[in-house]
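Checklist before submission:
- one chain only
- standard amino acids only
- sequence pasted in full

Submission:
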Amino acid sequence: MRPLLCLIVALTASAADRPSVLWFIVDDMSANFSCYGEKTIATPHVDRLAQEGTRFSRAYVTAPVCSPCRSALVTGMYQTTIGAHHHRSGRGELKITLPKEVTPTPKLFQQGGYYTCIGSGLTDLDFRGLPFGAGKGKKAKTGGASRLGKTDYNFEWDPAIYDSHDWAGRKSGQPFFMQVQLNGGKLRDGAEAGRVKFREHVVRELGACTDPTKVTLPPYYPRDPVLLQDWADYLDAVRLTDMHVGRVLARLEKEGQLANTLIVFMTDHGISHARGKQFLYEEGAHVPLVIRGPGIPAGQVRPDLVEHIDLAALSLSAAGLGVPAWMQGKDILAANYAKRDEAFSARDRCDETTEKIRSLRTDKFIYIRNFHPERPHLQPCAYKDGKPTVQRLRELHVAGQLPELSEKLLFSPTRPREELYELAADPHQIRNLANDPAYSAVLSEHRRRLDAKMIATKDPGPESMAMYDSDMKPYVGKGSPVIESNIAQMKKWAAEGK
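Returned file contents:
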């Protein structure tokens, strides 16, 4: 066949000749899976994906909290570049719109002939692994729209980018782009009565709960019964997530779709804890990433640095749709892919709590810059302070019963402006090397590289007070005294230059 004819055939090939693409996106979960070295629990289904595909050992989110992470994920762009970096922003009177050239990935798949959907991946169970309609409240709604999965984008977008909550409604032979959105670590959230029901569900599904006494905590958390039970519950949420993954895989296999579906498993940030979610340490930004499907090497482990915005690029490329020139994510599966030598992450305002932190990871080090060093690590935050773990840590702090390391890392009234950690020697980021003369050259290099990255990605300045007030308006006068008090504290610190 002549070259020109080959090109015409390739360009006009029907979407039916292309693989389907399925993303598992899980809330609030670190890489606590057997294939990543977790010893306390077994996760056979995610392990299967790793055995039959490629596991990435150093994948990072560009934002360690839901909405900016998901805004970046669905566009393949840094959330800082598109103005979607503040958590739950654009929800008030002032809105956020994407740059004109940026198109959400589901829309690109639609334009390429794909059926786009977002839901639980199962026809009978929701994102919690419970029957549709189970329980009370908004999670139990039974309307068709309620079966759509989590989006949480910070910009204005058209719901029509999703055709449905499930791929079952597509035309015969039509490939699909599916996002399976799972509750993950949030399964254990809520009051103690809800946690009891959660444990009962674990017993029904898995036979027994994880023993809190067998849990291994990071060294900066005390082995307190509240923290141990929470971590055990979290590990059981991992087990339930793994079971859900297995059920979706079984469905794909039964329908004859598994062999021709590119499957990506990832979480939207790490475990929700005092040094995890919302923060740029490994506990918050390092996530599992496993890819299985046509042409993906089986049993391979890749140790190179990758960012979660790469998912959009690699998925579009696998579907034969090409990667837009404006997209910052890279096709990390391409034969000519030049591996990253750094990974960038950013933390900004979360709900009412104003913040700005940036980080750069290289092969051996992580460099973190705190733009508000005069403030404590655990600033007032209604969401975080509502967690039993943080409440218990605060109780122990007030009582003077925390270990020295916990006090230093979690409750120091100020933070260092710069942090530098050697990851292999210090996996929990305990020893800050920023003031060590032996690492002055390393510090300077990472400082320079972060500056360059922020310029290249058009990292924005501080949020305007008008935008802050707009996003806080839904809280003010709505019976949230803690949030209102925190808003006042944020404005006071800003006025003081802190």
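Reviewer check: Confidence is low (pLDDT under 50) at residues 1-13, 140-144.
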